């Protein structure tokens, strides 16, 4: 059995379209989701935050279980198409369509309880379908791209394509919606769904499982003993380097989600009236796009994806702290550019770093249960949205924020807090924890790859 299959550039780029799909919808949801319910639908702030918190509890069950289910469950398509591809295709198609439901609240609906239930149910459906395809999508990465060079090149393509997804998602969300035109949100969501369906078609060739991958899975499944869900959960949390990666990922996601979700508030309540926040996002994305090739070269010379994550996270902190005191569009945009430099590097390297961690787990256990670990990864990534909701709830209540009115100095400072100061502190804590917990060195990574080849895994 040939463990390392050839992977074409076309396949790597097609795989990267999955990053576009996730970020395109994810960005729009972050930018206008919380804002839509708090200021347009005018759902009570406490109920809005509660819906996001309950949604995170749903994630506590949803994501790990989906990881476990898709890892263990064979379908009648498995031998022909693989264990992941059917879930990726069906989940991603439904995911794109389900986005419309979130923003389909009838304008005549005023009952707070009904609106709360609409929000809660729609985002839980949306997230379930996201997890159904994304867990499997992320899971094929370590197995499909098995060398360091392939992983970094694929991650580079994915990062660049994903940044376009972020940009396109933000630009469309900004340009197609107007807080004074209620129906603009459902129209925008429908346009997003159509673009999402096209993206799924472009992603297909990149996420197909090769005959070698299918053969390895069927051989591995026959050879290993099955373990219960809770047994796999304990094993995941006991794995030190995986736990370290997850903590830093949670803190990184929390920081970025809080920043991105704050941009609408910056535009409406901090900057002068009618000021577009597009330039802020342009700076953010240009910083990422222009420096991804540089981060690739640095990573190749540095030979440690684990340490590079900490370096890129600190670059983000350097930009976030002075953003606390920014007051003009130029200041926000310039600091967003610096933030983008760190973001691009972290985003590009986090999957190769996780793949190195999973390699270590496979060597120790003799089993390739990538989907289970990706399920836990998805949960902690979505948990960041609940953390953002709690941050906004706490800050807005403490500083006296009131939607659709001129804000007090205290409320404006609160917006600065959840835009920059709190995300910076979160990132610093994550890097400190990672520094103490992570033990993967370049030598260990190389040794694990050699062992995997000998083990035919």
How would you describe this protein?
By secondary structure, this protein is mostly helical. It has one domain (9-455): Growth Hormone, Chain: A, CATH 1.20.1250.20. The protein contains 16 helices and no strands. Helix 10 runs antiparallel to helix 13 (329-365). The longest helix has 37 residues, at 329-365. The protein is globular. The model has no long low-confidence stretch (mean pLDDT 86).
Question: What key attributes describe this structure?
Answer:
0% strand, mainly alpha, 457 residues, 16 helices, Growth Hormone, Chain: A
Summarize the structure.
The protein is mostly helical and 457 residues long. It is built from 16 helices and no strands.
CATH level 1 class label: Mainly Alpha
Strand content: under 5%
What is the name of the CATH architecture? Answer: Up-down Bundle
**Radius of gyration, taken over Cα atoms and rounded to an integer in Å:** 21 Å
Number of helices, where a helix is a run of at least 4 consecutive DSSP H or I residues: 16
Helix percent reads over 70%
What layout of secondary structure does this protein have?
Blueprint lengths: L8 H32 L4 H28 L5 H4 L3 H18 L9 H33 L3 H29 L7 H24 L3 H13 L5 H10 L1 H31 L7 H25 L2 H19 L5 H37 L4 H30 L9 H29 L4 H14 L2
Helix pairs in contact: 1-6, 1-7, 1-10, 2-5, 2-14, 4-5, 4-7, 5-14, 6-7, 6-11, 6-13, 10-13, 10-14, 10-15, 11-13, 12-13, 12-15, 13-16, 14-15
